[in-house]
Amino acid sequence: MSTEAKKHRFLTIEQVAEELNVSVSQIRALLKSGELRGIQVGGRSVWRIAISDVEDYITEAYRLTAERIIAGELPE
Fold first, then answer.
1. Are the CB atoms for 35 and 57 separated by under 8 Å?
2. For 8-26, what is each residue's pLDDT tens digit?
3. How far is CA 12 from CA 16, 21, 65, in A?
4. Measured at the alpha carbon of residue 65, what is the angle toward residues 64 and 68, in degrees to the nearest 5?
5. Which of 22, 49, 50, 59 lies in disulfide reach of 38, CB 3.0 to 4.6 Å?
6. Helix (H, G, I), strand (E, B) or coil at 57
7. Euclidean distance between CA atoms 26 and 28, whole angstroms
8. Is the dihedral of CA 47, 24, 20, 37 positive or negative?
9. Strand order in 10-11's β-sheet?
10. Is there a contact between 53 and 38 (Cβ–Cβ < 8 Å)?
């Protein structure tokens, strides 16, 4: 996590997208599917994602990727 992100418990969708180097729409899709945990604060489109939830998502993504590699599901 960047130094800026470590100052706060929660991140915005934009901050998470930057941290994972993906688009904002990809983060919104992950939130909608439940793959990434987040909370809505106030208005409908105001999301906050705990740093710990981002770390959990990354850990799970590594685990799933390793399983797919072992199963031969990822091309070389």
1. yes
2. 899 999 999 999 999 999 9
3. 6, 14, 26
4. 90
5. 49
6. helix
7. 5
8. positive
9. 10-11, 47-50, 39-40
10. yes
**Amino acid of residue 29:** A
Helix/strand/coil (H/E/C) assignment for every residue in 5-40: HHCCCEECHHHHHHHHCCCHHHHHHHHHHCCCCCEE
Kind plus residue range of the DSSP H or E element containing 67: helix 51-70
Q: Who contacts 22 (Cβ-Cβ below 8 Å, separation ≥6)?
A: none
Average pLDDT of the chain to the nearest whole number: 90
**pLDDT digits 0-9 by tens, 25-71:** 999 999 999 999 999 998 778 999 999 999 999 999 999 999 999 99
> Does position 2 have pLDDT exceeding 70, yes or no?
no
